Amino acid sequence: MARFLPGAIIIVNGNTIILQPILFQSDSRITINNTQLSIDASIQADPYQQIFVYTSGSVTGTFGKSPVSVGWFGARPDGNLVTGAGTNNTSAFNRALGVRSWSATGPNIVVVPAGTWMVNGQINITQGSALIGAAMGSTLLVVPSSASGNIINLPTGSGPSSVLRNMRITGQNGGASNATGIFCAANGAQIDNIWCASFKTCIELASTDIVLSNFVVEHGFQEGVYVTIDSNLIYSGIVYECPVGIRIKHDNNESTPTIISNIKMSSISCIGVKHAKGRVKMTAVSVSHVNGGMFQTAGFVIGSAEYPGAVQQCEFIGYSATLGGPSVANTSSGVYITGGASNVNINGGLFKNFGFGIRVNTSGSTINIVGSQCINNIKHGIFIERATYLIVANTQCSYNGSSEATDSGIYLNVAESYERHNIVGNLCIQGGGGPQKYGIYVSANNSTSKSLITSNVCTYNATGQITIAGSSAGNITETNNLKS
Questions:
Q1: pLDDT for position 295
Q2: Contacts of 338 (CB under 8 A, 6+ apart)
Q3: What are the domain boundaries of the chain?
Q4: Following CA atoms 44, 48, 53, 59 in sequence, which dihedral angle do they give, to the nearest 10 degrees?
Q5: How far does Cα 25 stand from its chain's mean position?
């Protein structure tokens, strides 16, 4: 192994290939003058030490297939989170990421040591490259408030997966409200152990088979995570203080779902998960509001006519004055199924402290709500405004309501043509003189529609247990219910 003594400066004036491993000692470096230096051997150097100095020319090679450091290319950890000041390290990061391609050398691993690194521009992690920090809590990339566009960019390409791991990426204090923190268009990319904060959109997924895991997203000005292509996996994350936690709009309109699992959202002011288009399967997602403000719309909005998918064992909790916080909007919902949404399955879960626990108003069909709890909501536990084919089964809809005359555990509006509803095996109770007026209230006003209300337990509600009203009340069959 060649050793460059402390302070040694090697000047390269012509195209050069290095085939022997090199140890760079303190302050030793290579200066490249408008030429190409190719290094096909391993390098040992302090990860913070600049060992390549050049304004023109290039450094490429295999580097013995060992990791390279952004510090070798002049990056400096002198960023300031408060002011956004510091050395702009964008060029140094991109030089390190550009030294080799996966096709020639195998994985291109670039490390970012612990420290605060200012970047003001786009960092490109090409297919097969990996940008890896020391840890989420010790490697910090600071972006000035003036930044725009995509800061970390994983572009489309061919080859092994791109990787982004073990760092925090954040706008300076006050945020970079015109920038996207991480934009991923790379198929199969892996983004994990990442904390991304204070951007217009913190993370955008714009390709398939991306895995986003073990992440924290906070203070998104527009949304925390935005998914525009289907077939992605999002799991084990925290989303905090965003108007919209996760927005789903699969523009490719395919049938493979995006899977969202084990996500905790809090301090969401408008919508926890906004599902506008595509198939989604959501399991073990918790959405709540704390620390002031209110849910304006819903914990989860399903507004898609194409492949809406399933909600399984999720928890959506608004906030109420009785719990020491501000009231939620009276029209908000734990889950709001709207537009032309069809084939929606809600299995289990808790929907609490909203205007409506679950609200359905869709021109689509086949809505199934099974085994859920809708409790302590301002108006109704479940509010069915419109649904062609609907099953509500084995749910608990209790202790809902406030001051309206028809506040109910389940409120069913039958007004559209040829609707078919089955309300079976539900528990709708109100004890201790609480505000829930009816266990089940049906307003039937279309002669072509039919509903079956059977095997429900409705007791101790303030005004009535099961009430069927309207011009077409005779089309509603009620049987084998427990009412007292």
A1: 47
A2: 301, 302, 303, 359, 361, 362
A3: 1-66
A4: 50
A5: 45
